[in-house]
Structure formats: C-alpha cells, structure tokens
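dude i think i finally got it to work??
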Amino acid sequence: MSMLSMREALYALLKTSGFAVYAEGQVPEGATYPYVTYDTTTAPLGEQGELRVTCWTRDDARGSLEMAKRMEEILPETGVLLRYADGLATIDPVRTELLQDAQDRRVSGCRGRFELRCYE
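look at this
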C-alpha cells in the first residue's frame, strides 16, 4: 500500500474547502490566514489510526467557526469513504476542540480529530 497515495487523496479532499492546506509542521513562514493543517497517524491495514484537521484564523474567531462548518461539510459526522490508488480509507469523527495559539493570542483554531482506517 502506498501511504503517499492516501495522503495525496486526503490533501485533495481537504483542498475542496477552498482554503490553503498544509501538512502540520510544514506551514511556510508568513503564510496568510486562514489556512488548514492536517496530520495523520497511520496503523496497520484495518486498524485504527488518527487524522487531525485544524482550521486556523487570525483576529477572526467567528471565521474559525465558519471554517469548521465548511470542513464539516467535507468531513461530515456520518463519516467519509476516501478512495485512493491502493485502497480506501474510512474517516470517522471523534471530537472537536477550540484552540488558541500560545505565542499569538490573536490566532485561534478549531481542531477535529478523526478515526482513520485504511484498507486494500
């Protein structure tokens, strides 16, 4: 199984939000808000991994909630079946939390945590 193919499919899905999308820890310096970050923890086929998707805004708490609503359209409560080159993945929501950047209090976010299972 090619995890890169799964990650490319995930990236393409998140890009349908219309926001800039970056892997967590790979946001370019000076990136313009709002944007979305994501991170995955994969597991052996069929076992539970994790997907974290965070919507970030600056000076716009309401914008963060609007972004979260848009992401909920893409990753609904009923879950998502994501097809990719070597198989498919199920993405099911676990919980959502509001965040505030420790270094810059003007930056806020809304993070969704999801169960991620990959199958061939």
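The domain at 3-119 is CATH 3.30.2000.20 (STM4215-like).
im so relieved honestly
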